[in-house]
């Protein structure tokens, strides 16, 4: 039975950066409209069922209420939403157990990071509704639904997916968390509002995904490595004063970043962090560091599998129109 999972993060794109920057806001009604488009796309591609995470604000339920003629079989996962990251973890873990062929995710880089902890080899198709959207696509939900269903149905081959690197945060010899885009060592004493607003509070940055259109700490990598990184490397940047670049830390916020050292680090190589009170993961401060903690970073190639929407749609259209004039 061919299934597609659907995860809607109801709180993505709502953090303090709406007050400290020009970051946009996608309200729940707009997310519901995106969900309706996704479901119509999935329906058109012949998937047997959509497994849907029940979200705290009822976004998916509202979308389904507004689709009375939907022929696609769907069901909500049997779980009580708590309105925090555990909803995504529990939903994705269940979907993987149910052997869904792909999972569509509405959120930002942080939502993808959370999902990737339990997604294994199941392909993800993230749609941008967050703040730092280096991984997610700015794409119409209909096309996303079609692409995800095509992967789940086996209508396209594995070449339309790729696997991300990940950066592991290791404290006292134990892997504590991971980042998919960037990991930053900061001098903020607490997680607090989570956003990294002041560039002077960053001491080091590790960047695994370099794209020309990145924002956040990843934008440092966009400047230093505009042609990208080798597949077996991540970028380690020590903040200082030897030279300066311009980086986009948040929407509408372009600032100078002083750099002391830049080096490419191979996969599997552990690098100690010398000075940090909190660790930023993919745009938000997530982990607090205490006296006596020994903090290291190591990258590997076991990040999530991501669907390349452009390749998936191109292959699908080529197959559909193989006999076209």
Structure write-up:
The chain has two domains: 3-164 and 304-320, Rossmann fold; 166-300, no CATH class. It is an alpha+beta fold and 325 residues long. 45% of the residues are buried. It is globular, with a radius of gyration of 20 Å. The strands form four sheets. A six-stranded antiparallel beta sheet has the order 12-11-10-9-14-15. Strands 3-2-1-4-5 form a five-stranded parallel beta sheet, with helices on both faces. It has helices at 17-20, 28-44, 59-65, 85-97, 109-119, 141-153, 218-224, 309-320; strands spanning 3-8, 49-52, 73-76, 102-107, 124-128, 161-163, 166-171, 174-179, 182-186, 202-207, 233-250, 253-266, 271-272, 278-281, 284-288, 295-300, 305-307. Keywords: Kinase, Transferase. GO terms for molecular function: NAD+ kinase activity. Pfam families: NAD_kinase. InterPro entries: AcoX-like, NAD/diacylglycerol_kinase_sf, NADK.
Q: How would you briefly describe this protein structure?
A:
This is ATP-NAD kinase. Helix content is 26%, strand content 32%. The chain has 325 residues and is of the alpha+beta class.
Keywords:
325 residues, alpha+beta, Rossmann fold, 2 domains, six-stranded antiparallel beta sheet, five-stranded parallel beta sheet, globular, transferase, kinase, AcoX-like
């Amino acid at each position: 039975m061919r299934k597609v999972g659907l995860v809607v993060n109801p709180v993505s794109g709502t953090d303090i950066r709406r007050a400290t920057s020009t970051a946009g806001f996608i309200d729940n009604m707009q997310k519901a409209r995106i969900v309706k488009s996704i479901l119509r796309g999935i329906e058109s591609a012949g998937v047997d069922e959509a497994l849907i995470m029940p979200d705290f604000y009822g976004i998916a339920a509202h979308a389904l209420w507004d689709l009375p003629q939907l022929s696609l079989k769907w069901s909500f996962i049997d779980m009580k939403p708590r309105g925090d990251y555990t909803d995504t973890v529990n939903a994705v873990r269940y979907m993987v157990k149910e052997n869904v062929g792909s999972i569509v995710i509405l959120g930002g880089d942080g939502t993808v990071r959370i999902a990737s902890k339990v997604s294994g080899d199941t392909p993800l198709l993230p749609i941008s509704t967050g703040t730092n959207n280096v991984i997610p696509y700015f794409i119409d939900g209909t096309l996303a639904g079609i692409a995800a269903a095509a992967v789940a149905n086996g209508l396209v081959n594995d070449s339309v997916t790729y696997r991300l690197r990940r950066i592991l945060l290791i404290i006292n010899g134990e892997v504590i968390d991971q980042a998919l885009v960037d990991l930053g060592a900061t001098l903020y004493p607490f997680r607090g509002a989570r956003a990294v607003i002041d560039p002077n509070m960053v001491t080091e940055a590790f960047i695994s995904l370099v794209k020309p259109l990145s924002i956040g700490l990843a934008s440092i990598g966009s400047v230093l490595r505009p042609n990208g990184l080798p597949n077996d490397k991540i970028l380690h940047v020590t903040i200082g004063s030897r030279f300066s670049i311009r980086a986009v830390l948040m929407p509408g916020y372009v600032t100078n970043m002083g750099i002391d050292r830049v080096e490419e680090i191979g996969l599997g190589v552990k690098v100690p962090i010398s000075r940090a009170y909190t660790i930023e993961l993919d745009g938000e401060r997530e982990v607090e560091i205490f006296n006596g903690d020994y903090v290291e970073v190591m990258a590997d190639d076991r990040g999530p599998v991501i669907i390349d929407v452009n390749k998936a749609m191109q292959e699908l259209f080529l197959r559909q129109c193989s006999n076209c004039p």
